[in-house]
């Protein structure tokens, strides 16, 4: 009996040991089917608004037309779009640097010469970015930039059109071959420019550039908007920008909410409705090409549906500091603010976003508006030149835009209810000038003085 009992215990022990070995083997060799989560997956899955196309956010701001000693200009959105739509019919190729064929002293006269049309962008664009906006049969493009399309017309012995891409600052001119160019369409557009564009004159005090200004007085509408956050949710931005948004820590102080997740911080100014995201660590070593900065900056916002309005357009960039700005435009005029309330700003590391600042609100238009007459171009020049130690060679541009101002105004009786902020905003037409690498506003006579550098 005792021997039989011992055999049973031995058998049970063998089974237990064997089971233990089998379980240990499976534990050691088990490979679960984990789903790999990429660093940017949140940006791809969480959307604040719908997706946009890059061509809707990189647009010209002005068209100039020169005929003999007469100059004409237009900021009108329809006029600019007509040229964009015309160029979309073309097929570009054979980009060739022809800068050496034109002397530096003759550059300005060549670009602004008679029977020339200029389609101006707000800042220089890489050719590879331009390739995404229009049709190119040339796949390999030089790593160069341009800020305007120059169309030159010759009428003798027949109607002939040449197209160039020009970098005004660097005095570089690139000829391009264009197919599908309809001469009748060019003639029709040219005829309209003569009839409807605003006559302008040239400010030539800067020896390196001409500044074209309207001859006649300008009147524009000043409009009041309520600002509404009803379509925007900071929680969605947290999900889009943080790896683990549920673990983000929130701190609140006067007019400010701060969310922190590791080395990433979202700072929300609850008074101006401006959000700023900061990534304190640049963890990548990838080197980014110039054109990729524009592409990635656009895709970064697009991936989380951050283009809440198509009115935010490419405005400026710095290839050295890797900063880029998309500004709010109204009727094809830029809107400025002293508190970053009209700008989507980004700063990149090697290939990773380090700083991202943007408004959270949207504009809700109020029916009330008033017509305002701007100071004449001649008066504006006088005001600028009166500044102490004024150097005309530091003056790069004089243009019209809007200044965003906060106003206190409540909804009218019976007006549809929306979630209003404490302050409404007013877009005031104003003159601005770009001096020594910074934009300044020329305040209306009733306000007096210039504003500090604008955002």
UniProtKB/TrEMBL annotation:
InterPro entries xrefs: YycH, YycH/YycI_2
Domain Regulatory protein YycH: 6-455
Keywords associated with the record: Membrane, Transmembrane, Transmembrane helix
Residue stretches spanning the membrane: 12-30
Protein name: Regulator of WalKR
């Amino acid at each position: 009996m005792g021997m039989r009992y011992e055999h049973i215990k031995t058998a049970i022990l063998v089974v237990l040991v064997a089971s233990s070995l089998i379980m240990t083997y499976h534990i050691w060799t088990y490979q679960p089917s984990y789903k790999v989560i990429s660093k940017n997956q949140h940006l791809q899955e969480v959307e604040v608004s719908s997706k946009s196309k890059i061509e809707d956010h990189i647009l010209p701001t002005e068209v100039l037309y020169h005929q003999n000693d007469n100059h004409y200009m237009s900021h009108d959105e329809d006029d600019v779009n007509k040229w964009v739509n015309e160029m979309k019919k073309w097929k570009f190729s054979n980009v060739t640097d022809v800068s050496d064929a034109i002397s530096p002293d003759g550059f300005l006269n060549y670009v602004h010469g008679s029977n020339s049309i200029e389609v101006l962008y707000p800042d220089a664009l890489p050719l590879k970015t331009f390739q995404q906006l229009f049709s190119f049969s040339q796949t390999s493009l030089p790593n160069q930039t341009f800020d305007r399309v120059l169309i030159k017309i010759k009428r003798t012995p027949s109607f002939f059109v040449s197209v160039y891409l020009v970098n005004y600052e660097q005095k570089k001119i690139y000829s391009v071959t264009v197919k599908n160019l309809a001469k009748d369409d060019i003639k029709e557009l040219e005829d309209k420019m003569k009839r409807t564009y605003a006559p302008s004159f040239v400010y030539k005090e800067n020896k390196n550039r001409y500044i074209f200004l309207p001859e006649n007085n300008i009147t524009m509408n000043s409009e009041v908007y309520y600002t509404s956050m009803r379509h925007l949710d900071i929680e969605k931005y947290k999900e889009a920008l943080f790896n683990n948004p549920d673990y983000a820590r929130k701190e609140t102080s006067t007019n400010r909410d701060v969310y922190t997740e590791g080395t990433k911080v979202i700072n929300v100014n609850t008074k101006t409705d401006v959000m700023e995201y900061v990534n304190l660590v640049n963890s990548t070593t990838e080197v980014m090409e110039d054109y990729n900065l524009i592409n990635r900056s656009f895709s970064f916002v697009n991936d989380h549906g951050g283009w809440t309005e198509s009115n935010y357009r490419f405005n400026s960039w710095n290839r050295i500091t890797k900063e880029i700005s998309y500004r709010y435009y109204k009727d094809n005029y830029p809107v400025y603010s002293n508190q970053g309330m009209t700008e989507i700003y980004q700063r990149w590391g090697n290939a990773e976003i380090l700083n991202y600042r943007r408004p959270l609100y949207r504009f809700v238009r109020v029916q009330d508006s008033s017509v305002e007459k701007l100071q004449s171009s001649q008066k504006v020049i006088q005001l600028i030149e009166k500044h102490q130690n004024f150097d005309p060679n530091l003056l790069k541009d004089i243009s019209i835009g809007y200044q965003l101002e906060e106003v206190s105004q409540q909804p009218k009786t019976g007006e549809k209810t929306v979630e209003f902020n404490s302050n409404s905003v007013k877009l005031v037409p104003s003159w601005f000038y770009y001096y020594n690498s910074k934009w300044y506003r020329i305040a209306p006579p009733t306000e007096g003085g210039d504003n500090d550098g604008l955002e």
